[in-house]
Amino acid sequence: MKRIFGLALGILAAIGGFVDIGDIVFNTAAGATFGYGLLWVVVLGVGGIITYSEMCGRVAAVSKRPVFDAVRERMGLSTGLVALIAAQLVNLMTLAAEVGGIALVLQLLSGLPYRALIMLAVIALTVVIWVLPFSWIERVFGYCGLCLLVFAVGALKLHPDWGEVAKGFVPHVNTTSPLVYGYFAVGLLGAAMTPYEVYFYSSGAIEEGWSPKDLGLNKANAMIGYGLGGFLSFALMITAGALFLPLGINPELLGTVALGAEVPLGQIGLILALVGTLFAVGGAAIDTCFSGAYNLAQFLGWEWGKYRTNAGAPRFTITWLVLLALGFCIVMTGIDPVMLTEYAVIFSAVALPFTYIPILLTANDRTYMGRYVNGRVANTLGLFYMLVILFIAVTAIPLMVITHMGQG
Amino acid sequence: MRLSDLLDRKVVTESGRSLGRAFDLRARWTGKTLEVTGLNVGRQGFLERLGIGSSQGEARKHHKQWNRDTIPWDAVLRLQDGRIVVRDGTEAR
Amino acid sequence: MSTSGELDVAYGILDHQIVDSENRRCGKVDDVELEGKVGEEMRVAALLVGVSAWRGRVPRPLAGLIARYFARQVVRVPWEVVKEVDSAVHLGQTAAELDLGRGDDRWQKRIARIPGSGF
Q: What's the pLDDT score for residue B62?
């Protein structure tokens, strides 16, 4: 019973934690541009993150290796270094985008100047990470992030054409503007499969001391948590499709996204949407911050982990502090966080193979995994998604350039 | 000598036939010591052709997809002109 | 995989995590020192730990940078200290005794001064 309760809590946190600024921006923009036509891509992306999270959770539980231990062992020092640098750059961009997102939401809530709010956001994040234990951070941000479910209620109240919604779940390609459609598809996949989620998930599994006994928990966490997280993505896209597309609104501002809840639900909808966004994005900022520190510490063999005290893993602590400071500097330049988000998602699509190839290799290695190596299902899905990942890694930047970031 | 001095070196037989590159050392525990018993040699693999391996050869140290062989250490003769020379006939197995 | 049977040195040891006798993570196996010569008997003599040990393993320009900025000594851990090899290399002594994990030690003193550092 206690186990089921723990699972339920973990899943609730995962739902709230799945959505970050990348998902919010891309799902809303995709809905505003193509209506429900890209819903199937979200399903595809969620399948990918489930497949690889399950795999890296299993690798962590059985072989005791987090992602960047596997990267260095399996790709070798030189290629591993390239993977590390790519991962850290993308992570930092994502972190900066999330910090900017927090400040934007705070600005909508308070009306105070943006740069002051960036400072407030970074100070608040630092204090929260420094003081709160890991499980608390996860739960507080996960549960409050659930306020985003207001978009699901909003989507229902907007009475979308459910026939059209259903059609959106059937894989197809838009023929009138295939390139812009392709750009959003790549963005949605990149946002759903953001590598930091995998770094964080696998390091968390090590921190919680998972063993092969926890493999059921791993599977349930990955499938239900990310699966329901995908549900939030649907809600965002359907809301945007039902509301913004007919009006011709292009939600370039985070505030526009929140309108999607205000129109059908009024003031309370707006506030819930903003609070949900604040915590979802705040939680993601913490995840990316830690992910960067996990990666570096694991690659270099330093002590790491939030379960140790701040002073118990000193260079790990310094790393996340420095990353947060760098993220602060980036957003303080005044760069538009929504644009930064798009760049972060597209570049993370390019860096995906570096993260996912070593996981696939390790999960297939019998000396590491014993009888818990990938079975036929995991390998079929793993290879299928590897092809998807390689495809989006190659096409992401050309599509971004050709379509002027989806502007056509 | 360091392990990295041996990894990725070309391996040839005495009569000059190329066997690929060295990508690992096979060793055996004897009590607390780790005795080298063989040289793992292989040709360029599937992953390298995809551009995943590094030119340093470290990445290829253990991808099982490719043609590889372990040459017994007593058949490994010397380092010569940056290459590892092994006894003729060892490649036959 | 423990202390019997066969082991591939690059696959099973190189780039692996090093853990000391108190379960502290204290570096990676950045290279392995071998005793003996090609054509004679050879055995593993020591683990080499530290970024400077990368010099022979990375492309030349990077090796140059490492030589310039990471001139610090490579820490040599004699093979006799290794107790067990599984997903990590476990040592029979503490990091402090072997001069490993010094970077963490240095930063620990500074961080410990901040309130709430848990020290």
A: 46
The number of residues making up chain B comes to: 93
pLDDT score, position A174: 86
The H or E element containing residue A340 is: helix A337-363
Residue pointed to by tokens 């050392």: B25
> Residue C40 class from Cβ within 10 Å (0-12 exposed, 13-18 middle, 19+ buried)?
exposed
User: Three-state DSSP class for B76?
Assistant: strand
Phi, psi (degrees; rounded to nearest 5) at A218? -60, -50
User: Per-residue b/e over A302-335, b at no fewer than 16 CB within 10 Å?
Assistant: bbbbbebbbbbbbbbbbbbbebbeebbebbbeee
Extract the residue ranges of chain A whose pLDDT is less than 70.
Answer: 1-13, 16-17
What is each CA distance from C80 to C25, C45, C75, in whole angstroms? 19, 8, 15
Dist CA A117 CA C17 (whole Å): 41
* Secondary structure element (H or E) that encloses residue B49, with its range: helix B46-49
CA dist., res. A112 & res. A109, Å (int) = 9
- Whether A281 and C2 have beta carbons less than 8 Å apart is answered as no
The first and second tokens of residue B18, run together, are: 């190329």
pLDDT at A311: 84
Amino acid letter, A328 = F
The CA R_g of chain B, rounded to the nearest whole Å, is 13
Measured between beta carbons, the chain B residues lying within 8 angstroms of A77 are: 54, 56, 58
Chain B neighbors (3+ CB pairs < 8 Å):
A, C
- pLDDT digit string (tens) for A62-72? 999 999 999 99
Q: What b/e string do you get for A183-216 counting C-beta neighbours within 10 Å, with b at 16 or more?
A: bbbbbbbbbbbbbbbbbbbbbbbbbeebeeebbe
Q: Which residues from chain C sit within 8 angstroms of residue A298, using beta carbons?
A: 17
pLDDT of residue A83: 93
pLDDT tens per residue across all 119 residues of chain C: 456 788 899 989 999 999 999 999 999 999 999 999 999 999 999 999 999 999 889 888 888 888 888 767 799 999 999 999 988 999 999 999 999 998 888 888 888 888 877 75
**Contacts A80 to C, Cβ<8 Å:** 15
Smallest CA–CA separation between A74 and chain C, in Å?
Answer: 8
B24 touches chain C (CB under 8 A): yes
- What does the block give as tokens for A280? 């979802």
Is the predicted pLDDT of residue B55 greater than 50, yes or no? Answer: no
Q: Minimal CA–CA distance to A61: which of A175, A186, A171, A216? A: A216
